[in-house]
Design brief:
Elements (H helix, E strand, L loop, with lengths): L1 H7 L12 H31 L4 H7 L3 H8 L1 H12 L8 H18 L1 H15 L5 H16 L5 H11 L8 H14 L5 H12 L12 H7 L6 H23 L1
Helix pairs in contact: 2-5, 3-6, 4-5, 4-6, 6-7, 6-8, 8-10, 9-10, 10-12
Length: 253
């Protein structure tokens, strides 16, 4: 309430009938600033405790409070205190923690805005699409779809993501297949008909057995080709791992 009154310029004086209301207002300003700094320091200390707790269950439970804390701390302090720690969660072997991260990151992305989203968050989400735990892959796709639905993705970035995610529509895991179709459908929410026909349709056409008239999720799912056999997918992933190891050793030499 103090913050709202101060922003509105209607902060009252401390004493009625004071000769100089400015002195009373100054007292409110000082009290507000001092108390706010104390509260920020206390919350910052406790936030660090939860963010770095050794128990993954504690960190996972704490993630539900992160979007509200970002608003409370402000953009600069939230970036330094919270986002720097959240990035390390994807290195944790606990797949439940990773899923909780992606459920939370949508709310955080709304706060940090488009440029920071593309620079810091989207690379982590694309990296998660290769996670060995398929629940993590599915949740990353769900979060991408939510970002697309609320208009967080730039137009050019949307095409890149559609090109990448559309391939998961042939995944043998039905949940991943459905999540990928959900994203493709959501990605067209803010695109014109011309963009959908000229840019999006050619990207998804290789995965369709029949042409589609709309980009609705149900029509996409009905028009998709049969998913890849699990054996083929496993062989492809193993080949990618070998290539990555070869590139790594070549660069190391």
């Amino acid at each position: 309430m103090m913050q709202a009154l101060r922003a509105d310029g209607s902060l009252p004086s401390t004493e009625k009938g004071a000769e100089d209301d400015l002195e009373g207002n100054a007292a409110y300003y000082d009290a507000y600033d001092a108390t706010r700094l104390e509260v920020l320091a206390a919350f910052e200390h406790q936030t660090k405790v939860f963010l770095t707790d050794q128990d993954a269950a504690v960190r996972r439970a704490f993630l539900s409070s992160v979007p509200s804390l970002c608003v409370f701390f402000g953009e600069d302090r939230a970036s330094d205190l919270i986002l720097s720690h959240l990035n390390t969660y994807l290195n944790d072997p606990n797949w439940l923690l990773k899923c909780a991260f992606f459920k939370t990151i949508v709310g955080v992305s709304v706060y940090i805005g488009g440029p920071s989203l593309e620079e810091f968050i989207l690379p982590l989400m694309l990296q998660a699409l290769t996670d060995p735990q398929e629940f993590v892959v599915e949740q990353a796709l769900r979060s991408l779809a939510s970002m697309a639905e609320i208009g967080l993705l730039q137009r050019s970035k949307t095409w890149e993501l559609v090109d990448t995610v559309a391939r998961f529509e042939l995944h043998p895991n039905l949940w991943i297949k459905e999540a990928a179709s959900h994203f493709v459908s959501a990605a067209t929410t803010y695109l014109s008909v011309a963009d959908m026909r000229i840019l999006v349709t050619p990207l998804i056409q290789p995965y369709l057995k029949v042409p589609i008239s709309t980009m609705s999720e149900s029509e996409l799912l009905d028009a998709l080709k049969k998913p890849l056999p699990r054996v083929v997918l496993d062989l492809a992933l193993e080949w990618v791992k070998r290539v990555d190891r070869g590139v790594f050793w070549k660069s190391a030499k």
